[in-house]
Amino acid sequence: MAQFEAGYSPHDWSDSEMRDYAASIDPSMPVDRGIVRAVRVLRDAGFVTIESCEGGEGHSYPEPTIKFQATRAGGWHALGTLMDYGFPIHRIGRMWTMTEGMPTGPEWHVTFWKRLD
Predict the structure, then answer these.
(1) What is the DSSP track for 59-86?
(2) What sign does the CA torsion over 14, 54, 36, 114 have?
(3) Is residue 5 part of a domain?
(4) Which of 22, 73, 84, 99 allows an S-S link to 30, with CB 3.0 to 4.6 Å?
(5) How many domains does the chain divide into?
(6) Contact 34, 13 (CB under 8 A)
(7) Helices 15-25 and 36-44 meet at what angle, rounded to 10?
């Protein structure tokens, strides 16, 4: 996984930077504002994010959640990376998803106890 440059600080990124970054991932469906900082940290560290949601009523998940790909050990590296930047992690785990009646995965999920705006 990638090492971060000196001065890398996700809590210093402006709202404008985060809006632009969220749109750069998928212009037709930008990453939710309440999860984009953690998505960027994981992607900058070399992880492939599959799905993310800031959570809440009308969203895919009840809590802010990121689904990402990683090896067994890589998921723990992702956790450590997010912890280093003080993100409010609620839980982390691996999950299988049912696709056309068959389990696929596992994929890692990390949830946070609050939005990350």
Answers:
(1) SSSSS-EEEEE--HHHHHHHHHHHHHTT
(2) positive
(3) no
(4) 22
(5) 1
(6) no
(7) 70
* pLDDT of residue 5 exceeding 90: no
> Is residue 70, in this structure, part of any structural domain at all?
yes
Which residues of the chain form beta strands (DSSP E)? 48-53, 65-69, 89-99, 102-112
Tokens of 87: 């993100």
CB of 108 closer than 8 Å to CB of 75:
yes
* 76, part of any domain: yes
What average pLDDT does range 100-109 have in this prediction? Answer: 94
pLDDT (0 to 100) of residue 7: 76
- Contact assessment for residue 25 and residue 12, using Cβ atoms and an 8 Å cutoff: no
pTM: 0.90
Question: What distance in Å separates the CA atoms of residue 114 and residue 11, rounded to the nearest whole number?
Answer: 15
